[in-house]
Write a structure and sequence with these properties.
Number of helices: 10
Strand content: 5-15%
Structural class: alpha/beta
Strand order of the largest sheet: 1-2-3-4-5-6-7-8
Order of helices and strands: HEHEHHEHEHEHEHEHEH
Largest sheet: 8 strands, parallel, barrel
Helix content: 25-40%
Number of strands: 8
Distance between the termini: 34 Å
Shape: globular
Length: 401
């Protein structure tokens, strides 16, 4: 624990040195730019202060936290809020806005005959809606957005005898949307982002563009405030796209799902379905970097740590230029510290020993350069340094349910 505090303290000092040399920019357009977020895990241990301090220095607007329903309600009506409470209380003083990505049906609520080794939808969508109501009632005013069952286009996330089903997903989304807004009308409900698979066998995965289209056909547009998308740059720079290769690699090139700009195709589906005025949320974006081959992530060998840094900064700049993007959430900050054997750790901004990868330093510097602060002339008191910050917090959260 002491070591990680020292490592991130050194990081903080280096970033503050960078910040001191950069002028603040007085602008009235800060709220029109996409928010910048980090996907991280704040519920793995109690030592989250250095993570939050680093995120603050990076001028992060949004923190995205995965929430597994089964961890909180292992038995029907019996809630274990302790880890959530601690996470919420740790985040509050920093002024971040919270995005919760919710999935993970508990055993008692799962659809019958689902694969017990995989996640599954609830047998009754109303049970999920009740959980969302309980959570948003407890944390009313403390959560700004929720993402409903991301990656439901994968059998690993949606194991069911009936198979993967966008139509069943809409049945889950409908009561959840109503329950969330009844508990807290200001929460942004994000239609769950899908995995960019470039596969459409219907059993292991449904192509995300196909899935989005079927969602719309089933009436999903009425049950989300914004649509989520997940993008993985694989071994391609952020500005590349199908037909515009700027690298020597030849793999992962024949489908837009392999590119950061895949979000353009998702937004096209929104526009085709009369939803162009809604915002698109990139709830997970990143580049994996590895020095040894990892099954399923072979492309990570083509991306060294310096390229990872370069690509993430380029992606952030590119997202800033898109008026229909509400937020860009980088995947991920600290999964390497708890999930080192998981492929997700290849995307992390810090290593397993808590030392910073170049991507963290480069992103922090870029955010310092992009940051905007408005000053109140009458009292010379600066507003909060986070461009998209809103004071949504109340003093305490309820003890019930």
């Amino acid at each position: 624990m002491f070591r990680r505090h020292i490592i991130l303290a050194i990081l903080a000092l280096s970033l503050l040195t960078v910040a001191a040399t950069l002028p603040f920019v007085n602008t009235t357009k800060a709220d029109q730019t996409p928010g910048f977020g980090l996907r991280l895990n704040l519920m793995i241990n109690n030592d989250v202060t250095p993570l939050l301090n680093a995120a603050q220095i990076m001028r992060v607007d949004w923190l995205a936290q995965d929430v597994r329903w089964k961890d909180i309600e292992p038995q029907a009506g019996q809630y274990k809020w302790e880890k959530m409470d601690a996470m919420i209380m740790a985040v509050r003083p920093h002024g971040f806005r919270l995005l919760l990505s919710v999935y993970g049906t508990p055993d008692w609520a799962r659809v019958a005959r689902s694969d017990p080794t995989r996640d599954a939808p609830p047998a009754n969508p109303a049970t999920f809606a009740r959980f969302m109501s309980a959570m948003l009632t407890r944390y009313n005013g403390l959560v700004s957005a929720v993402e409903i069952y991301p990656e439901s286009n994968l059998s690993a996330r949606w194991s069911s005898p009936d198979g993967i089903s966008p139509e069943r997903y809409v049945e889950l989304l409908k009561p959840a949307y109503a329950a969330i807004h009844a508990a807290d009308p200001l929460v942004i409900v994000i239609g769950g982002s899908l995995a960019p698979t470039a596969s459409n066998d219907g059993k292991i995965a449904i192509d995300d563009l196909v899935y989005y289209k079927r969602m719309y056909k089933a009436g999903a547009a009425n049950y989300f405030d914004a649509l989520g998308v997940r993008v993985d740059g694989h071994n391609n720079p952020p500005k590349d796209f199908v037909g515009s290769k700027s690298v020597t690699t030849t793999t992962y090139k024949n489908n837009s799902a392999f590119y950061f700009r895949h979000y353009e195709d998702v937004y096209a589906v929104m526009a085709e379905n009369g939803d162009k005025d809604k915002k698109l949320w990139i709830t997970s974006a990143g580049w994996a970097s590895a020095t040894q081959k990892v099954a399923g992530k072979e492309f990570a060998l083509d991306v060294d740590e310096q390229k990872q840094a370069e690509y993430l900064v380029g992606a952030t700049e590119l997202a800033q230029s898109q008026p229909y993007i509400a937020a860009l959430v980088i995947n991920n900050f600290n999964y390497s510290t708890s999930l080192e054997s998981d492929p997700a750790s290849l995307y992390s901004l810090i290593r397993a020993d808590w030392s910073a990868r170049p991507a963290l330093l480069k992103l922090a510097q870029a955010r310092q350069e992009m940051a905007a602060v408005s000053f109140t002339p009458n009292n010379s008191v600066s507003q909060h340094i986070l461009p998209n910050w809103r004071p949504r917090q109340r003093p305490t959260f309820g003890s019930q349910p």
